[in-house]
Amino acid sequence: MSLTIGIDPGSRITGYGLVDLRGRDIVFIGSGIIRAGDSKPIEQRLLAIKRALDAVIQRYHPTALAVEEIFMAKNPKSTLTLGQARGIALLAAAEAGIPIFEYSSREVKSSVTGAGGAHKSQVAAMVGRLMRLDHEPETEDETDALAVAFCHAARSGDIRRSAT
Fold first, then answer.
1. Does 141 participate in catalysis according to the annotation?
2. Active-site position among 68, 140, 142, 144
3. What angle is formed at CA 79 by the lines to CA 77 and CA 84, rounded to 5 degrees?
4. At what angle do helices 140-156 and 105-113 cross, to 10 degrees?
5. How far is CA 72 from CA 24, 55, 78, 82, in A?
6. Could you tell me which of 52, 9, 27 has the C-alpha nearest to residue 159?
7. Right CATH number for 2-156 from 3.40.50.720, 3.30.420.10, 3.40.250.10, 3.40.190.10?
8. In angstroms, rounded to a whole number, what is the distance separating the alpha carbons of residues 18 and 24?
9. Is 68 among the catalytic positions?
10. Whole-angstrom Cα distance, residue 18 to residue 35?
11. Which secondary-structure segment (H or E) carries 4?
12. Would residue 38 show up in a list of annotated catalytic residues for this protein?
């Protein structure tokens, strides 16, 4: 079993997605979002994210955590806040002894759609098809987390995309 948790960190909403590499198949296990709250101070939101991620990790026992590499947003304050939420995800993985793997946005998009410059809507559509989801993820954060988990599973198992 090679269970990967993908994380799309955010200070208000953090998405997570779990996939399992079974042979040459990438199987959807679960996904969701962590709503940290809009009106809480940042330290309270980060604590809420940490506690929720700890619970998800404890429930599923992933063997790898995948996250997108940090990027520079147009607003430096947004970049810093994103970095704080991302740091919480990395801390949760480190405390649980889970190896961390980082991928660029282009790598994630390419592994899911075949094109590194794909639009978010194309990524979302392909995630649904590749994971054979019977529901639409609640937010882009959940979809993005599944995409990064898929990317890691595909790369670690040398799987080529194939939507049936």
1. yes
2. 68
3. 95
4. 80
5. 35, 30, 9, 10
6. 27
7. 3.30.420.10
8. 16
9. yes
10. 18
11. strand 2-8
12. no
List the catalytic residue out of 20, 141, 142, 144: 141
Is-contact 7 91, C-beta < 8 A?
A: no
Per-residue model confidence as pLDDT tens digits over 14-61: 999 999 999 888 999 999 999 998 899 999 999 999 999 999 999 999
For the entire predicted model, the pTM comes to: 0.91
Which of 8, 20, 140, 144 is labelled catalytic? 8
Alpha carbons 155 and 84: distance in angstroms, whole number: 27
Tell me what pLDDT residue 153 has.
95
End-to-end CA, the chain: 23
Rounded-to-integer distance, Cα 114 and Cα 126, Å: 10
Q: Tokens in use for 20?
A: 């399992």
Q: Count of CB atoms within 10 A of residue 27's CB?
A: 14
- What type of residue is 15? G
CA distance 136 to 125: 9
Helices (H), 33-139: 42-60, 76-96, 105-113, 120-130
